From TrEMBL:
In the C-terminal section; belongs to the transpeptidase family. In the N-terminal section; belongs to the glycosyltransferase 51 family. This is Carboxypeptidase. Residues 721-748 have a biased composition (Basic and acidic residues). Gene3D superfamilies: Biosynthetic peptidoglycan transglycosylase-like, DD-peptidase/beta-lactamase superfamily. Residues 77-263 form the Glycosyl transferase family domain. The keyword Cell wall biogenesis/degradation applies. It comes from the Bacteria. Residues 749-764 have a biased composition (Low complexity).
Amino acid sequence: MAAKKSPFFDTATTLGKIVAFFGISALCGLLTAGMMVPVAALAKTGMTTGNNIVTALPSSFEALPISEPSQILDAKGKTIATFYEQNREPVKLDEISPYMRKAIVSVEDERFYEHKGIDPKGIARAVVGNLTGSSRSGASTLTQQYVNNLLVNNQELTGSEESTVSGQKDLAAKIRELKYATSIEKTMSKDEILEGYLNLVLFSGREYGVQAASQYFYSVDAKDLNLQQSAMLAGMVQLPNVYNPINNPERSLDRRNKVLGNMLRTGAITKKEYDKAVKSGLELKQSKSPSGCIAAGDNAYFCDYVTKLITSDESFGKTKKDRENLLYRGGLQIKTTLNSSLNKQAAKDARKSIDPKAKSNTDVASAIVSVEPGTGNILAMAQNTEYVPDKGLGQTMLNYTVERAYGGAGGFQAGSTMKPYTTLAWLKEGHHMYDKINAKRPYFSPTSTWRASCLPGGQTITGGSQPWQPRNASAGFYRTMTVDTGLFWSINSATIQEANRLDLCNISDYANALGLVDYDGGEGKPISPKSPSFIIGTPKVTPLAQAAAFATFANKGEFCEPRALTSVTDKSGNEYKVKPTTCSQQVDPQDISDLNGTLQKIATKRVSKGRVAGPIAGKTGTNNYSTSTWFVGYTTGISTAAWVGRVDKTAAEEANTLQGSMINNVRAPRTLDSSTYAAPLWVDFMEEAVLEYDRSSLGAARRAPVVKKETSSDSSSSSDSKSDSSSKSDSSKESSSDSKSSKSDSSSKSDSSSKSSKSDSGNSGNNGNGKGKGDKSDD
């Protein structure tokens, strides 16, 4: 049973109203007298009421910075996204319509320019009205409301549980508010208080301050508000939800007209102005400014990556909560490396490649990411999906281009894009691209040893329980060929036989030095030489890491760490530490030129075929069963990784194969590899992208020494002794000795996608990239 109220204190009774009237009147006198005296800071006492509270209160408090939205900008300064808990854009008083200034004073505190922070007349009026009428009204001055809003802001920033929200304040809080109001009046002018209030007060939802409210409801700046617009906004602040013109237009209109009446009564406007304004409708023209990356459109995945960088970096706060508060309340200007117009094209091309709304593409996706050689600046980061929290067809917040720590998918098997690292190790150990290698059918028992100087004992073994017998897509390539030819056609047996003559640690060292990280198993770790199969693509790497690594090939062997931020400053001009351009020479420039000699031919003859202005270079990549396909290519000005594959069922297993599956609601080729979707995606994007950036020489590859005399016994392999940089294409030379199926390597249908013969099926688990049956392109 509820406790029975005493009639002595119950304001619903006549006796209670009389007692309350005299009590409050006495308190008003007490406050007025008490606030004339400066006092020391609040001591820890048991005082809770009356004059003791007044004399114990501090005369001022530290007002923390008011929350302001943060913005992420592209490389040209265009806003990509805005973040806020409170959408606010502070403006000066002279940037606020005079009508708005008059309206807020007329309705909230008509004696604002007369009192010193508290209004005894207003208090008396409110007390009498509350005691004699059925409705209740407040007597807070604009100065008191300003103080209250500042205190609420402090509580939100500090996490304080103490409430200063109207209707929830105890007597001590109300007295404190009054004292602070008189103190502020001594240090701030009336115009300064009015400006502060109009920038701080809540108008609707997350729209704080008159500028944000003006834009939200009328799509105009605060300085351009007319009379009726000003009156409507001024009427909202008392009860923002009740007087919201969108949800409650009739109430809002009635409230607006009452404000106009107040303005007329106080002489703020003329009768003519009143008559015209009161006849008008609400005339809303709403303009939304959504918060967060969802509003960033095609730039959303880059936006998400940037937010993850900030909220995980202690430069922006000790805890994640501190960093999130800074992002959503700190008014940051976050300048980035993004070329947003290029990124828009990347997203368009990704959707063209893999239709996100095709029912067959539930677990098939595409992504593009570009990095600038020489700086590491991320220029584009896009994919075919829509950035939304829903999990409908073609919708995800997962970023396919980065690691899980930054909101990503965690990488995909690299396939033959790993082969250039074996080539670099080959060159490092004193060999040449024109050297011949016996690319015979590989056979390595589980105990076969491989040189690996960085591992215990200086070696490793093949491992596993069965012999490792990786297969080529076409039987005709099990023969002697130059290293250049083996890389050009992406021949598994050639790369493996090269590696068998090398120190595997030299191969893995290059991959690690160029920023690759293996996310196989979930947690990122360095590329390890322990299992030799890494050389043909078992590591799971991110598209961003691929683009940055291949940018090294475009930059004469200098690797630059990828970066997205160029500067971060807050509203006070304070600068935060961001990653600078961080580059280091990792590969001998001549070795890079030799490698580029081959990769240029791949990009030019097998992929672009005249569509992309050069010089261009790059490498194809496909894992077993084609669950991950790539083309990573570059000019000296831009390096781009294009990826197409499965997102969830990524394991290189027959059950997950994309070969012959339904993609874009049509049957994909059984020979599906990098040339089917990934390489065309790269070409579509780079055809225009390369025109915006430098396209200088990629270096000159060393040629084989001239052989004066050639015996007949050598003629069968003479084509291999020549560099592919010669005027004749290797495709014509190889076709003379290979099966007809190998000719399709140079067709538009497949990079090296001839159908495998049954004899080339291999043993389960012992071919290709070390997993699968071998019925795949070496790419």
